[in-house]
């Protein structure tokens, strides 16, 4: 029986067992896939929350009180520093993002349609790999997104 499109069968060098590789995302799994591989994207983001965010707290601040306008100004300053190459996206996300992905330089890994809030998803899919978004507004706060794959 052939595999659904986008999957390749491999053998683990560590234990000799068969596993399956998604050729679109390079994700692997032990269970034989039943559906075609999903075409995912990979992105990093830098999130600045504000008092009207869905959950106005983060690993950095227990109670976020800034306004949305203040969050937008902060994000614009971050974006400018990245564009001027004063700092890398990952370096800034690590210290400034209100998301727990900060510990990975803002990396969210691979995701497919329907996994993220719609404005975030749409903005990410419109970007080219290596492109930095303008401000993206979601229920979580305001973001800049770097598409990485």
Rg over alpha carbons: 18 Å
Helicity level, as a percent range? 10-25%
Query: What share of the residues does DSSP label as strand, in percent?
Result: 15-25%
Give the number of DSSP strands. 7
Low-confidence stretches: none
Q: Could you give the distance between the termini? A: 31 Å
Reading side by side through the largest sheet, how are the strands ordered?
5-4-7-6
SSE succession: EEEEHHEHEE
Describe the largest sheet. 4 strands, antiparallel
Helix count from the secondary structure assignment: 3
Mean pLDDT: 93
Overall form: elongated
Oligomeric state of the chains present here: single chain
Structural class: alpha+beta
How would you summarize what this structure contains?
With about 150 residues, this protein is α+β, with helices and mostly antiparallel strands. It is about 20% helix and about 25% strand.
Characterization of the model:
This protein has 149 residues and is of the alpha+beta class. 22% of the residues lie in helices and 23% in strands. It is built from three helices and seven strands, in the order E-E-E-E-H-H-E-H-E-E. It has helices at residues 68-83, 89-96, 118-126, and strands at 7-11, 18-22, 28-29, 41-48, 107-111, 136-138, 141-147.
């Amino acid at each position: 029986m052939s595999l659904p499109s986008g999957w390749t069968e491999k053998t683990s060098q560590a234990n000799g067992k068969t596993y399956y590789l998604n050729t679109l995302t390079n994700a692997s799994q032990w269970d034989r896939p039943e559906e075609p591989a999903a075409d995912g994207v990979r992105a990093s983001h830098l999130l600045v929350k504000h008092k009207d965010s869905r959950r106005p707290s983060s690993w950095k601040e227990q109670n976020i009180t800034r306004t949305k306008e203040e969050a937008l100004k902060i994000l614009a300053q971050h974006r400018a520093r990245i564009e001027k190459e004063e700092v890398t996206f990952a370096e800034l996300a690590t210290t400034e993002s209100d998301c727990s992905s900060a510990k990975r330089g803002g990396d969210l890994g691979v995701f497919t349609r329907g996994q993220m809030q719609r404005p975030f998803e749409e903005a990410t899919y419109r970007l080219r790999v290596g492109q930095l978004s303008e401000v993206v507004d979601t229920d979580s706060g305001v973001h800049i997104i770097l598409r990485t794959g």
